Batch of 2 targets.
Target 1
Amino acid sequence: MNYECILVETVGAGARKTGLIRLNRPKALNALSDPLMDELGHALKAFDADEGIGCIVLTGSEKAFAAGADIPTLMQHDFMSAFNSQLISKNWEHILQVRKPVLGAVQGFCLGGGCELAMMCDVLYAADTAKFGQPEIKLGVIPGGGGTQRLPRWVGKSKAMDLLLTGRMMGAEEAERSGLVARVIPAAELMDEVLKAAETINGYAAPVVALMKQLTNQAFEVPLTQGVQIERGMFHAVFGTANQKEGMDAFLNKRAPNWPQP
Ligand code: CAA
């Protein structure tokens, strides 16, 4: 597939590399058009299937991660066309099928569908220039990419209501305080730091990384007791893998682990 709305590259020096995807519609502040979301889904699937890739980093530009769904396209819809074309749902959720960690690196505007896409990442790192918000209310609509559901889970009900009902933007420090982002990093250092985190993750045993991601995301889907039971079962299962033998043997013999290939 030829990409016109995203830039894709592989970075890193280790055995397993990082798949880097940059949203790239600069004239529209990376507004998430259908072609862009199709390309993003394709690139995510390709990196996920590539055994040479450890994690995926998703980012935008200095000015915007993404300023939302593409408003001129939305403007053309009525109820039937939105329903029939499965507006938003059709190509927005490929990211949720990815088994490898997806690290979001946010600079500038991260609004509406942009914020919803960011919340589908597994971890968010924000530049000190990042601005998050769900301004759909200003357009006379509600979020359609999970904003009313994921935002309360990330930042709590009161902060989510404040953002959703006022449509205001929240800066990076506030986003970190409220739990939306893992770390705030000076803009000039953002990509280096995120790629460093990705490289650390790439160095761990791939099946254990995938399991960690799956279980942590599951915490938002199942009741606590059931989640802990599933974790316990998986914890027992990892003792049947060569990764556990190698990791613990390496620790006890004071050497670096040499993870078996999956
Ligand atoms: N869709 C399409 N184009 C967009 C866009 C969007 N979401 N956001 C910005 N653009 C375009 C602007 O139309 C403008 O294009 P032109 O130069 O051709 O006029 C260009 O990007 C630059 O934007 P501005 O001139 O407005 O830049 P600014 O720095 O003055 O303001 C901004 C930046 C505050 C982000 C402002 O552009 C803005 O408010 N954008 C809309 C944000 C928004 O409402 N997002 C929600 C969309 S709906 C949604 O996402 C639904 C959902 O849940 C999936």
Target 2
Amino acid sequence: RERSFIMVKPDGVHRGLVGDIIKRFEQRGYKLVGIKVIVPSRELAAKHYAEHDGKPFFPKLVDFLSSGAVVAMVFEGKDVVKTGRTMIGATNPLASAPGTIRGDFGIDMGRNIIHGSDSVDSAMREIALWFKADELADYEPVATPWLYE
Ligand code: GTP
Ligand code: MG
């Protein structure tokens, strides 16, 4: 099944939003297969956001992501990349609908709490960047037949 890389950024960790964010993905039915708390190096942050290298906001973005602890996660399930983005909301929290993570918790673009992969290809790249293969758990939740027909 499809996987997405979901990460609570330093602002979300400082603000104590980790539990709520995990709860939303769990309640939706997505399976947590990887999780770690780390302070990313500037190098890792720059690699993660490589698509934005050269843009005016890139240096600030890298500084911010590497400024504190993040919670890096991999969730698995049907359409998790697209649904994850819907649950997260728009890049600008002020443009995010209430009920989304950014729409419920954020104000500024540079403090938008959470990252989610924007495509299946990005997800594969990001998961390989942040996790080793043996850090991802292979298991089948007993709830699976109660989530999928
Ligand atoms: P991520 O899930 O973090 O990748 O956000 P996103 O996919 O919604 O947005 P995108 O990948 O385009 O941008 C990555 C991050 O850069 C965003 O989450 C913002 O924090 C920041 N960012 C994007 N565009 C701008 C911008 O125009 N100005 C500023 N200051 N920051 C931006
Ligand atoms: Mg993005």
